[in-house]
What does this fold into?
Amino acid sequence: MRYLTQIFQPVITIPKNAKIKNTEITCKSQKLLLECGLIRPTTSGFFTILPLARRALDKLELLVNSCLERVQAQRISLPCLTSANLWEKTGRLDSVGSELFTIEDRHDKKYLLAPTHEEAVADLMADVGPLSHKQLPLLLYQITNKYRDELRPKHGLLRGREFSMMDLYGFHSNIQCAHNTYSQVTEVYRRLFDVLGLPVHRLVAPTGEMGGSLSHEWQLPAQAGEDSINICPSCSHVQRNGGCEKCASETDVVQTVEVGHTFILGTKYSEPLQAKCIHPDSNPSPLIMSCYGIGITRLLAASLEALSSESQIRWPKCIAPFAAIVIGPKEGSKEWSKHGLNHIEGVARKLDGILDGDVVLDDRHTLTIGKRLFLADRMGYPHIIVCGRNSSETPPRYELYTNGRREPILGDINELMDIINGVSDTQRDRSRS
It folds into this structure.
């Protein structure tokens, strides 16, 4: 159990058309994350992730890790700095150069802050290889900060110059192996977005500068999105543009945020970097590669864009910073005299036991219940437990606000724990199934 006043959460109010450290406020997720003390800009395109947002990101990373375990992916950490020489060998240094942060060391050797690590991981395979076909498919992933010198960073965490990303790399002995693995990882993506409760759509996409033979974008409808897709209201088919290819009906254009991208790369990186596989009846040949990305910080912000109102955060419940908050009576009130701090802490500890330490107690007892309830709802706590006028009864009864409901559920602590525990069990089952 945590006490709210001990959490570092520098809440601010942003006037209309204001800028924070020369950063323009352009979307609701950016405004809510700033005003609720979850992030803080340092300079254009860079943000400090504050404790509550960090807690949500930690939960999201754990969820991603558990999903990737299903396909036997193994986690690694590659250096943030990549030798520019590797990017020269694959031809990407010239094609992507304007978006790269580059540096030189004291020996005039050139490096770049990698926005992605295809070259680095292919070089790793070349260094340890050649691999036997018996070792394949091999899936390696990391969740690390990446860097891109965006010309115009905007929308807060949706398009910054530093961002957290999960990048997964697959190595295969042949193209059929790559397609089989691609299908398995696709199912993992679908499962992840289903657990988060997000309506993410997969669309065929051009491979672009990444190269390869197959590519899909994963798009989440959100008003602040810079992409768009067409959704058929009749058959729910999703495509890029024009009339529906499936039923010929007119389609609705929906703004979206790209939260993931997947590729079958072929030998674009393995061949120039000499990452090879040994087959039983032939000479070593270049590994067939695939790669899969999910923007972790972008997915967090995009989920708030999709689920929140202009004034209230709504989280995917499994990644909310805390599962529940307990609000006690105002200090000095009639309810406070009968149900004071010790009783309130007892309620919070009981809830803490069933929610694995995921409870916070709002200990600003000089504020009215109404004020604290308003602020808790704005922060989007999945469960808000209020010790109000009914807490003076025998046995005490409490108000439970859940799922953004305006009308509370009234019950004693055991009844409310059963309700909360049932919801929590359902969420855990969805993530495990």
